[in-house]
């Protein structure tokens, strides 16, 4: 019995390190802007990621999903039932960007009370659609120093791509790094991702593969599938990040 136990411990130790002797990196997909873009493209994306058994965080833009509810209702119901999909709050309007002076703007660069109101509404929508772990990502990554406190006050569990929370106001999970699948944005790029993937495989950690599948067509899906095939071939570990948030 002792020999069997020792063997099992050795196997688990091997599984938890990579070829360089470090921890095995974990990957999940973060798919932004559900509710906008092509419904057919989203349907293709969901089928493709299910084929490769990859966990996907689906970022919902609330105004868009409400305005386009008929086109996305079937997919939303499928996402709620499928164990490899989870919904997260990705803002109300996705009105964000950079102004002429080079300053970022967005709905989460705003007074604390305004951010809390939006986050409460996002949380309520997630809860109504079966989520019990509340995850947030600001559209365009546009947030400010008040966002951490707003998230803490409204009970969110995870924050993807946060601004530096210098005071540690938000105690939930914060994922700061992403593996860049699209280069430039909206364009999956097998070559540039492959270079980054080789580095990530050597360093461990949790990584989100950010994508915008609602903007893809046939060639872009083919490039994305090349990435999934390559990761599978190199035994990439796919799983939820933030302890399952």
Explain the overall architecture.
- This protein is α/β, with parallel strands linked by helices.
- It has a single domain, classed as TIM Barrel (Alpha-Beta Barrel).
- Helices cover 40% and strands 17% of the residues.
- It is built from 8 helices and 11 strands.
- The chain has helices spanning 2-15, 39-51, 62-67, 69-81, 112-128, 147-154, 190-201, 218-233; strands spanning 26-34, 56-60, 85-89, 97-98, 104-105, 135-136, 158-160, 173-175, 178-180, 206-211, 237-238.
- The strands form 3 sheets. Strands 1, 2, 3, 9, 10 and 11 form a 6-stranded parallel sheet that branches.
- A hairpin with a 5-residue loop joins strand 4 (97-98) and strand 5 (104-105).
- The longest helix has 17 residues, at 112-128.
What's the N-to-C terminus distance?
A: 36 Å
Strand content: 15-25%
Query: Any idea what the CATH architecture is?
Result: Alpha-Beta Barrel
How many β-strand runs?
A: 11
Give me the CATH superfamily.
Glycoside hydrolase/deacetylase
Question: Any idea what the shape is?
Answer: globular
Q: In the residues, how many domains can be counted?
A: 1
Number of helices: 8
Describe the largest sheet. 6 strands, parallel
- Determine the CATH topology: TIM Barrel
List the uncertain runs. Answer: 1-17
Average residue-wise pLDDT: 89
- Taken in chain order, the helices and strands follow as HEHEHHEEEHEHEEEHEHE
